Amino acid sequence: MSSSALEAQSPSAEEPPSRRDFIYIATGAMAAGGAVAAVWPLIDQLEPAADTIAGGLPLKVDISKIEPGAQITVFWRKNPIFVVRRTPAMLARIRQPSDLKMLRDPHSTSKQQPAYAQNWSRSIKPEYLVLIGVCTHLGCTPNFEPGAGALGPTWPGGWLCPCHGSRYDLAGRVFKSVPAPLNLPVPPYSFESPTSLIIGQNPPAQAWSMSDINTL
Q: Is 21 helix (H, G, I), strand (E, B) or coil?
């Protein structure tokens, strides 16, 4: 088609839009607005509720690659969470009567763990220990010192707080005669599968939240 024919069919730049053109424009704008209005509730549903965000979304952790005797640290609700895969030797050590005598709360009577972890191992499965890695003295992050004897001949392995010297055994239980008054807390958690745990989600029919933890 020639340029003259195109010019004949095209309105002049100076020509105001006709009533039909205005109807087309208005209809298109309404359709676009309607599409946004229809999509927005769907987008809004994809966002977690504010109270869910504030409460801390559950965190899934793959534990399949943790070596025996090793610790990994993840973060949930801005807190470091220690996950330790304990060896049979470690589990035997936390039951030694001589070591229990060194602890302030060896039987975990203080409310620092849920009922499902108030046992000799302070865990759902003895092999895997899950702790909030915050010293109960002034909130520092303790260092993992798993080697027996690494901090002296009576050291059974556990954690040392570098700030003021508080010590915890391999169940997160605090020693006597250190600044920290309480055992390391256990967060709510559960196992999704043998190789996956969920921090922030209790096992079925169990209840435990961060607000339940004992504070001085």
A: helix
DSSP-assigned letters across all residues of 184-216: PP---EEEEETTEEEET-PPTT----GGGS---
The predicted pLDDT at position 216 comes to: 63
Strand partners, 59: 199
**What tens digit of pLDDT does each residue of 156-210 get?**
999 999 999 999 999 999 999 999 999 999 999 999 999 999 999 999 999 999 9
Q: Which helix (H) or strand (E) holds 169?
A: strand 167-169
User: Would strands 71-76 and 59-62 be described as parallel, antiparallel, or unpaired?
Assistant: unpaired
Summarize pLDDT for 21-62 with one digit per residue, the tens: 444 444 444 444 443 333 333 333 334 444 434 457 999 999
Q: Is 80 exposed, middle or buried (0-12, 13-18, 19+ CB in 10 A)?
A: middle
With tokens 């340029």, the residue in question is: 3
Token match 């339940």: residue? 212
CA distance 91 to 79: 25
Assess contact for 93 and 156: CB atoms under 8 A: yes
Residue 199 contacts residue 185 (beta carbons within 8 Å): no
Residue 74 backbone class (left: φ over 0; alpha: ψ -120 to 50; beta: rest): beta
